[in-house]
Each structure stands twice: as structure tokens, then as C-alpha cells.
TrEMBL record:
Domain of life: Eukaryota
Record-annotated membrane-spanning stretches: 353-373
The UniProt record lists the keyword Kinase: no
PANTHER family: LEUCINE RICH REPEAT FAMILY PROTEIN (PTHR45617), LRRCT DOMAIN-CONTAINING PROTEIN (PTHR45617:SF169)
Entry keywords, A to Z: Leucine-rich repeat, Membrane, Repeat, Signal, Transmembrane, Transmembrane helix
Source lineage: Eukaryota, Sar, Stramenopiles, Oomycota, Saprolegniomycetes
Protein name: Aste57867_12315 protein
Signal sequence range: 1-21
Length: 394
């Protein structure tokens, strides 16, 4: 009996060993398959990964996750980060090596922040799979262009995006972004962005104008070092605005609505009370006859932010559609104009006229439907009687 048990135990151990070996072999086979298209990566490239099937140091446990760079031609690891347990919260990843791309980082689901700087030339995001809980992403000095962003499955958690010092001439970013930093790029225009933005940095670009922006939640905006930005028009900021800077930006025409005007006035008052904590910085060219004429044509008024401040802006009131009045209330020649409807006037308000008209139309339609139903019913009744008589006579 003991001999049989021993034999069974040996067989069970052998089976477990074989199964384990088969699992390791299968895992290694998956790891040796290289999914990257080396056509997009120059020789000696490095791709940043956090993939247990790729980034395994000798003797490392499969329950561990490491970040590494691999060669896209051979998929051999080139550099290893510290080993990270899968249950450990990794909030921040910082890479300053000259990598050529980013691959799958989804094996570190707890990573919320990633910062990559000084990438190699021809950097690409074509293989990038972000961590599922990523909130803050910085790609700085990585020679990015706008087409890179269309390929990436951005997580809904991403809210802060920093893309300073790249080659962006246009940009479409996820709708979840509330803080956007695009300093030192090649942007010429900035339009149609989501109203949820709270922080916006457009410094060091080639903007020529900034028009028709509605950013009611904006707290900070930086327009420094835009040498061609001559016009800011029809932008809407609110009292949330706490910082506005346009240093070394020769604005010649500044057209704002009332709410934006009051926000800038408030910032200037804060500057006066706390000079060290500057909130408003504008290098502004004095108003010319041309800018004054343009302001008048847009139904605005050139107004100083404060009487003691030489900075003037074109202040416009937001145009609201006028309320329509019944024609019977329009004054005749020589009759004084009275706001609203006269107390003894026999004319109905527009709302009542619309309601009565709608009820009349409904009544007409109901009558037509009833008459049609009655006609069809009578016709059907006659047909049924003739048929019954015929059958009965037979």
C-alpha cells in the first residue's frame, strides 16, 4: 500500500512539474514573439514597456511587474526599473532616457502619473496603451506631432496633459482634460476647445489671434512669448479667473465682453494690493485710430481697466435677442414708445396667441379624423348588410 501511494505521489509531482514547465514554455513563447513593426523604429531604438511577458529579469517572479525598454527588432530588454509588486500602488513613473516610443503600460493599473522627457528623434505613440487609471501625463521635448494622438486609447481618467516643447501645429485632446499645457510648440490657432478647461498654457507659440473662446471654468491662462498674437477677441472668462499673463506678446486689439472685463479689473486690483503675487501681466500697445475704429464698428467702447491704468480694451455687451411684440402694440407715428403692453390694451400677449392657435389646429385635426372615421364606419356597415342578404337568399 505504501509503495502504491509513493508511486502515485511521484506521478502527481511529475505531472505538476510538466504542467509548470509547459506554462513557463508557453509564457516564454509569448514573450519571444515580437509584435512591434521595426519599420517605424530606427536601429537601436528603445520602447518603454510595463509588461510581465517582456520585462523579466533572470530569476524574477511572474507576480512582479517591471518597467523596461526593449529593442523593437529583437524584443530583448535593454534597461530595467525597480521590480514592482502587482499589489503595490505605483503613482508616478518618470523616464528621462532617450526612448523612441511607449508600448503597453496596462500591467501597472495603479499608475496615475507618467512623465517622459527628452525622447529620441522620431518618437512615436503608435504602440502606446496607457495605464487604465492614468490621470496626469507629461510628454516633454519628444518631437510629437498631432497625428500621434489619434492612435491612442486615452482613458477617461486622464485630466492633466502637458505637451511642452514638441512640434505641435494643431492638437485634438481628450474631452476629459481640464489642465492643458502646450508651451513652446508651433501652434498658430487655438479654437473650439472644451469649456471644462481650468488651466491653459499657450506660451511660446506662433498664435496670430485668439477668438471666440468660451472658457467659463478657466482659472489660469498663459500667453507669454507669442510675438504674432495681435488680436484677442470675443473670449469669455469669468470671476474664476485668477491668473492672466501675456508678457512679450504685442496685443494690439483686445475685445472682451462685460464679464471678462470685470474679471480683468479684479485681477488688476489684486496686483495693486499684492505686487509680489502678480495676477495680471499684459504688454499692450496703446490704442490706435485703427483699433478704436474697429471697436466702434463692433459696437464696443474703448475702456481703461482702471482710471489709473493706461491699458484699454474694447468692451462689448453681450447681444441678447430682442423680445418679439404683437404687431398691434407697435406705436404709430407720433405715439410715445411704451415698454411692454399697455394695461388697457385689447391686444393679446404673444404667448396667448400662440396657445390659442395651437388649440384651434388640434381641434380642426380632431374633427377631420372623426368625420373620416364616421364615413368609413357607414361604408363598412352597408357592405356587411348586402352580403348577409345575398347569403340568406341562397
Amino acid at each position: 500500500m505504501a509503495k502504491r501511494l509513493c508511486t502515485a505521489g511521484v506521478l502527481l509531482a511529475s505531472c505538476l512539474h510538466v504542467a509548470s514547465a509547459y506554462g513557463d514554455i508557453r509564457f516564454l513563447q509569448e514573450a519571444t514573439f515580437c509584435p512591434f513593426d521595426d519599420h517605424w523604429y530606427p536601429a537601436g531604438s528603445g520602447i518603454l514597456l510595463a509588461d510581465r511577458s517582456r520585462c523579466l529579469e533572470p530569476g524574477a517572479s511572474l507576480s512582479k511587474v517591471v518597467m523596461c525598454t526593449i529593442n523593437p527588432k529583437t524584443c530583448q530588454p535593454q534597461w530595467f526599473s525597480d521590480i514592482v509588486d502587482t499589489n503595490t500602488t505605483v503613482e508616478f513613473g518618470h523616464v528621462t532616457a532617450g526612448i523612441n516610443g511607449i508600448g503597453n503600460l496596462s500591467d501597472i493599473p495603479t499608475m496615475t502619473m507618467l512623465r517622459v522627457e527628452n525622447c529620441a528623434p522620431n518618437f512615436t505613440l503608435r504602440d502606446f496603451i496607457p495605464p487604465p487609471r492614468l490621470q496626469n501625463l507629461s510628454l516633454i521635448n519628444c518631437t510629437l506631432n498631432a497625428t500621434e494622438f489619434y492612435r491612442v486609447p486615452w482613458p477617461a481618467s486622464l485630466s492633466i496633459l502637458t505637451l511642452n516643447s514638441n512640434k505641435l501645429n494643431r492638437i485634438d485632446v481628450p474631452l476629459s482634460i481640464i489642465e492643458l499645457r502646450l508651451g513652446n510648440n508651433n501652434l498658430r490657432q487655438f479654437r473650439n476647445f472644451q469649456a471644462e478647461l481650468e488651466v491653459l498654457d499657450l506660451s511660446g507659440n506662433n498664435l496670430t489671434n485668439l477668438t471666440d473662446l468660451n472658457l467659463p471654468r478657466l482659472r489660469e491662462i498663459n500667453l507669454d512669448n507669442n510675438p504674432n498674437l495681435a488680436t484677442i477677441a470675443n473670449v469669455n472668462f469669468t470671476k474664476r479667473l485668477a491668473y492672466f499673463s501675456a508678457k512679450r506678446t504685442p496685443i494690439r486689439q483686445f475685445v472682451v465682453f462685460d464679464e471678462t472685463f470685470l474679471s480683468l479689473v479684479e485681477l488688476y486690483k489684486q496686483n495693486a494690493s499684492s505686487p509680489r503675487l502678480g495676477c495680471l501681466f499684459i504688454d499692450y500697445t496703446n490704442a490706435t485710430n485703427q483699433t478704436i475704429l474697429a471697436c466702434n464698428q463692433s459696437h464696443g467702447n474703448m475702456t481703461s481697466l482702471l482710471s489709473s491704468m493706461p491699458l484699454s480694451v474694447c468692451r462689448r455687451e453681450e447681444v441678447k435677442p430682442p423680445l418679439a411684440l404683437p404687431e398691434t402694440n407697435l406705436p404709430t407715428a407720433g405715439q410715445p414708445v411704451v415698454q411692454g403692453v399697455a394695461e388697457n390694451s385689447s391686444a393679446w400677449p404673444l404667448g396667448q396667441i400662440t396657445l390659442v392657435s395651437a388649440l384651434a389646429i388640434v381641434a380642426i385635426i380632431a374633427t377631420l379624423v372623426f368625420l373620416r372615421w364616421r364615413y368609413v364606419s357607414k361604408k363598412a356597415g352597408k357592405t356587411a348588410i348586402v352580403k348577409d342578404e345575398y347569403e340568406y337568399s341562397i
